[in-house]
Structures are given as C-alpha cells and as structure tokens.
Design goal:
Largest sheet of chain B: 6 strands, mixed
Radius of gyration of chain B: 14 Å
Number of helices of chain A: 1
Strand content of chain A: over 45%
Distance between the termini of chain B: 41 Å
Structural class of chain A: mainly beta
Shape of chain B: globular
Strand content of chain B: over 45%
Number of strands of chain A: 11
Structural class of chain B: mainly beta
Oligomer: heterodimer
C-alpha cells in the first residue's frame, strides 16, 4: 500500500519564478494538507484541501495557492519565488471523518526540497 | 500569539536509558497533542496522540503525558536504542471547528549512543 508520494523530490529555482509541487495521498485518504518546513524548524501549516476546495489556510500570502483533483491528488503552486521560500514542502493526507472526530492524524510524504537562488 | 517550545538543544543519552522530551505551549487550548518522529530527509511519522481529557498514553516503549494546567507534555522513550535517534516533533490541534491545522514545535533531536 503506497503511502503519500510527492514530486519532485528536489528542485532549484531562481527568484521570481513559479513552482508547482505535486502530491498523491495515501490510498483511501480524502484530505490533503500542505506544510512548509524551514531548516531546523517544525512544519508550518499552509492549507488543507477536501472535495477540491480549500478548507483552511495558514498565515501564508496569496502567492501560495493549491488545487485538489477528483482523485484526491493535490498541487501546491508558489508564484514570484523569494529566497525565503527555500524549504522542505511536506504533503500530508488524512480521513476527513477522522478530522471531524478530532483525531487529526497525518500521514506525511517525504517532501519536496525547494531551493530558491 | 500561539507558541510551542521544545528543547532546542539536542538530547544525548546512553543506550538503555530513558529519554524524556518536553513540549511546552502558551496562548493555546488544544483538544489533543501528538508526537511525531522525523528522520533526516524524510517526512514526520505519527507516533502517539493524547487528548485533553487524558493524562497518560502508552505504546510499547513510548509514554506521553499531558498536563493542560501546566500546558506541558512529556514524551518518554524507555530502554532507548540507537535506532531511536531522530528528531521528535510535538504538534497541537483543536477539535472539529479547526480540524485542518496542526501547530508544530521546532523539534528536539535525540541521539542515543551505544
């Protein structure tokens, strides 16, 4: 049973460029969340998607946008990249029914390491 | 603003000893608290969840306590092994009204020496 898969694993961009990161959730999961993890820090919540809609958003600018597809996979887009966007971007999946019962246990992918030069 | 603090310095212990990691939080009322393990270059892996009305949870060699008065959780690994060496993250979450967001601490790196 495949867990959460993310692509690409590593990428390098320059300031001002745009990037798209992709995520396939664990089989059977219907909710996808994205987190940004800077070096030496804990993950920070970007947003969560369910039924192709953004359910909740963290304190990230509009340059960060996302999408969820009918097969539950998701994309994270970042426009006008800044040096400070360099980080590990983590995708996590879960069951909405578990979220609503208060048991928000996440299954994370290995992440996409973005370097902005 | 909400703040979670974990031991910023790495914890070095000898194999066989008990490792104790601390997670303190302020300006937040979590419905539950979770602990995750993260290895270098990998995503976090869920270990344990404890709810606000629970004092203690155990799973094999792991034990978590949750004191909502002190706003603190302790994470214990008994009979530690070199394979337990990793970064451990605590995360707080609320109930169904705020189900998507987990707030993570910065993590504590544990090094178990043989």
């Amino acid at each position: 049973d495949a867990g959460v898969t993310q692509s690409p694993t590593h990428l390098i961009k320059t300031r001002g460029q745009q990037v798209t990161l992709r995520c396939s959730p664990k089989s059977g999961h219907d909710t996808v969340s994205w987190y940004q993890q800077a070096l030496g820090q804990g993950p920070q919540f970007i947003f969560q998607y369910y039924e192709e809609e953004e359910r909740q958003r963290g304190n990230f600018p509009d340059r960060f946008s996302g999408h969820q597809f009918p097969n539950y996979s998701s994309e994270l887009n970042v426009n006008a990249l800044l040096l400070g966007d360099s980080a590990l971007y983590l995708c996590a999946s879960s069951f909405l029914s578990n979220l609503n019962s208060g048991a928000n246990v996440l299954t994370f992918g290995a992440g996409s390491r973005l370097t902005v030069l | 603003s909400q703040k979670i603090e974990q031991n910023s310095e790495a914890l070095n212990i000898q194999e066989g000893k008990t490792a104790t990691l601390t997670c303190n939080y302020t300006n937040y009322s979590p419905a539950y608290l979770q602990w995750y393990r993260q290895d270098p270059g990998r995503g976090p892996v869920f270990l344990l969840l404890i709810r606000e009305n629970e004092k203690e949870k155990r799973k094999e060699r792991l034990k978590v306590t949750f004191d909502t008065t002190l706003k603190q959780s302790l994470f214990h690994i008994t009979a530690s092994q070199p394979a337990d060496s990793a970064t451990y993250l605590c995360a707080l979450g609320r109930g169904s009204s705020n189900t998507g967001k987990l707030i993570f601490g910065q993590g504590t790196t544990l090094q178990v020496k043989p």
